[in-house]
């Protein structure tokens, strides 16, 4: 499959993505644990059907030491016993934050309170920004049909 747009050769995309991706770098350096960031990025990308991002975040998580069992169970995290309570809270917030069109309330108070039990203000901010960032990236990639399978860990760092 070929992408509809080549972000690396299009001048407008290059200008916009330079700044857009710098936000992603700030999030990578945030106080939110790396494992949580990758699990959230993966789950948001799964929900949105972003093959390129699923490819990227599965490989980045594995390169950072994430286990195949946990990566394979992200889609069914509620029934899996391999995630911490903090990770479960982050995944719940990520799902509700991604499915805002499906859930009239957006992120519910209970989900927010559960996340706030496990993350401080700086980490919660990073989590909210990450969910929003991933949703935007997913949409860019889904709209333009960016292909998956060739990503190498660290490729965009």
UniProtKB/TrEMBL annotation:
Classification via SUPFAM superfamilies: AhpD-like (SSF69118)
Domain Carboxymuconolactone decarboxylase-like: from-to ranges: 16-96
Protein name: Carboxymuconolactone decarboxylase family protein
Alphabetized GO MF terms: peroxiredoxin activity
